[in-house]
Amino acid sequence: MARKATPPTAVQPKIYLDAGQLTRGIERLQQRIVDLDAFDLNTMRGGTSPELQALERSIEDTLERCFGSNTTAANRYCEAYNLHLRMLMWVSGMPDPDYKGGTQKKIGNAKALLGQAINALKADLEDLEPNSPVAAPSRSTTPGDSTRIFLVHGHDEAVRETVARFLEKLGIEVIILHEQANGGRTIIEKIEHHSDVGMAVVLLTPDDVGGKVGGELEPRVRQNVLLELGYFIGALGRNKVCALKSGNVEIPTDFAGVVWTPMSGEWRTALARELKIAGYEVDWNKVMG
User: Fold this and answer.
1) CA distances from 190 to 152, 175, 187, 193 (A)
2) 139-288 sits in which CATH class?
3) Contact at 8 Å (CB) between 201 and 244?
4) Sequence ranges of the domains in the chain
5) Residue 201: in which H helix or E strand, if any?
6) Who's near 183: CB < 8 A, 6+ residues apart?
7) Residue 71: predicted pLDDT
8) Could you report the per-residue pLDDT of 250-262, keeping only the tens digit for each?
């Protein structure tokens, strides 16, 4: 069973982060809260599970990145990675401990502590001089409507409908370009007109084929999808663009820095986590339902 989070006695001085580090720290802490929300208590056996242990280590590592090791702030939040219920004494014949209920309470406490940690980093971010180079807001912080998502797609209607219906199930308005009125606008003007969204979801599906002259043809994403992918990376920032890859398709090397998720297994959970980080309200009962 994982060790109890006991802070050492020699306290280290506070660490100082620049604006970029503070912003990344806030995002990482928000992701840990999402991970706590997504944890399945049914995976526990005898009061623990590999998933719970990994979650403790992940939270501990994130807090250390944000607040250092054995600082006053780090010690303040150390109970956030103490997720295991520990029995001081248990005698044969006594009722089995309520590990799930106890762990659920600890998860609630951990989320509250991580919320406090996020507020602390936000306060540090606000304290930076507005005209300081490190405090200058990046393009990725541009606010958008966190009730709407722009869905970029190719010719695979089945994939498009699957993702669109999932997003609508979460109460999010999905903007699909061809469903919007033209209003005398060109395609790029329509994209610009509807780009006031909190996030873009881009579907990478093998709709075309291509290759070098004289080489073998390989499945590729449609050119309009790549164009819109690049547009939204520039308009919203990479952290507000989620790419879902379906099937065997080549990803251009220019987009090697874009994180994409395969549409297999737990892709809904992965997408929901990205939505949460981007500022969307996520009902995990609907995600799992």
Assistant:
1) 13, 11, 5, 5
2) alpha beta
3) yes
4) 19-135, 139-288
5) strand 199-204
6) 190, 193
7) 85
8) 766 656 556 678 8
